[in-house]
Amino acid sequence: MSTIAGKTTHTQNSEEIRFSPSEGWSGSWNIEGPKAAVRALLNQLAGLGYSFVFQCNQSPKATVQYETVGVPGGPGTGGEETPTLNWEYFANQFEIDVLETDRAAIIGISEGDKRKIRDAIAAPDPDTAPNLTGNALTVYQLMLGGQRSVRLNVPNLRVSKLVSGSYPVKASLTNVGAIITTNTLIIQEAIPSTILFNLPNLSTTKSGFAYAWYKKHPNVQQAGGIKWNISQEWEYGLWPTFVYGTAL
To answer: How many other C-beta atoms are found inside a 10 Å radius of the C-beta of residue 174?
Structure first.
């Protein structure tokens, strides 16, 4: 009791800070002091996402032991929250009208022949076939046989992080809705070279289109009451530049 006589502030008794490449930052601390001063820390610790145990066995003296992942310092130490980024790559697929693909065999078909094919497929006449040759005739015959679409790879890239409610950096809306080239995306988002996948970086001869990453709105979800999961996603594809603008 006499050890805190006249004392109004708390004292940090112990500190342990840990770091590993696989686990990131973590730490544990112990604070002791007058009950009122120590209890005043609890809301701050909860808001920062710390796990803690408060004890007051011999009032007015109290202690709080707390620990966390992602913060290399305790309250008042100037430590900044450094969440681990989790990168994910999803190999999605979807189907598109065979006449809309950028395959060389399709791009070579004139717009006039494409209209003939579409009209003939929409209202087939068994007695009259459209006047087509070469690739246009081959595609028309494929479509007559039921081949109306082709499968395309549409990969998605996602990065996410788990943070406390007091994390100061909000999810960014910069370039949401824009299309971004692979080279620009790697630089803008500081995508690590150690990721275990290669990002596609295609080019096309289809006029007015560009292969790029479409930036979606970020997702922000509360997790566990005091934690927040923030994620950002990009979808790779062939986009009309008249609609989406020139790829950044």
So the answer is: 7
| Higher pLDDT among residues 91 and 49, named by residue | 91
In DSSP terms, which residues pair with 16 in a beta bridge? 28
Q: Where are the alpha helices (DSSP H) in the chain?
A: 35-39, 42-48, 104-107, 111-122, 134-144, 182-188, 241-244
pLDDT digits (tens, 9 = 90+) for 153-168: 899 999 999 887 767 7
What is the pLDDT at residue 237?
94
Dihedral over Cα of 102, 103, 106, 110: its sign? positive
Give, as one character, the DSSP assignment of residue 213. Answer: E
CA dihedral over 132, 136, 138, 142, signed as positive or negative: negative
What is the structure's pLDDT at 196? 87
Contact by Cβ (8 Å): 14, 72: no
H or E, element range at 160: strand 156-164
Domain ranges of the chain: 2-69, 86-92+154-244, 97-148
DSSP track, 5-30: TT--S-EEEEEEEEEETTTEEEEEEE
Q: What percent of the chain has pLDDT over 90?
A: 33
How far is 185 from 78, CA to CA, in rounded Å?
32
